[in-house]
Amino acid sequence: MQYANMGTLNIIAKQRQIPLPSYVLRALMKQILCGIHTFHDSGLIHRDIKCDNILLHSPHGSGFVHAKISDFGFAKYEDLINEQTYTAGTIPYMAPEMFKIPLIVTQKVDIYALGITFYHLITHKYPVNEPTFEEQGKKINLMQGIERPAEITDNLLWDLLSQMLEFDPDKRIIAHDAHIHPYFTNPEAIADISEEQKKLASLANVEYKNHVISNPSYIVAETEIKKFFIHYIQIQQEKQKQEQKLDEEEKKQQEILRQQIEQ
């Protein structure tokens, strides 16, 4: 796995107590969609897009964070003719067609998985998350589509996600069209850029996927992700303290019991 000094998207998805600003969410989504668009242009399917496989890395001294797609162990060239003999991926991220026979896997499975990734990033939950592949398939097959969660109040954001989460792969949006969706291009989106994004854009050109980008709407400020990163470290340190405390108490109880036996 590539080195990433700011963890993965899970560092955000698993911390609902810290708000994610709309301009940070939009920039993260733009970066990731740009990446999957480039990947799909090469004819490949990733087949295991999920929060754990989107790395966050801040080049030393840059002040910004790159979102990088990682773990290409299941990646393969798209084959629209031959039926697949096995499924790949992580259950809550699997597209509805993954549970059907014959199994023809296209790049659209990545789009659905990315829709679930964004859904999880925003709501901190999955729309469907059954314990086994079989149970997930049964639940999905009973559904007409993913319902809009209360946490997503932006109509354009939900319009984009609903197209990414479309159950019919033939109707599901492609990466190129998702990347230029009105959610990213409408006047409100253009106005929703922080002063820090503008400052970072003016200080340096950002290299991303072999393109030099000076558009501040793509920039994720390191300070925004550090809030999640620092809080995560604090939680882990607190857990270690609690575990040490429990260990010490257990040792005391064992010592008391030993002394009682000896008496």
Automatic annotation (TrEMBL):
GO biological process, one term: mitotic DNA damage checkpoint signaling
Region Disordered: start-end pairs: 240-263
Pfam families: Pkinase (PF00069)
Protein kinase domain: residues covered: 1-184
GO annotation, cellular component aspect: cytoplasm; nucleus
Protein name: Protein kinase domain-containing protein
The species this protein was found in: Streblomastix strix
Domain of life (superkingdom): Eukaryota
Biased composition (Basic and acidic residues): 240-255
GO molecular function: ATP binding; protein serine/threonine kinase activity
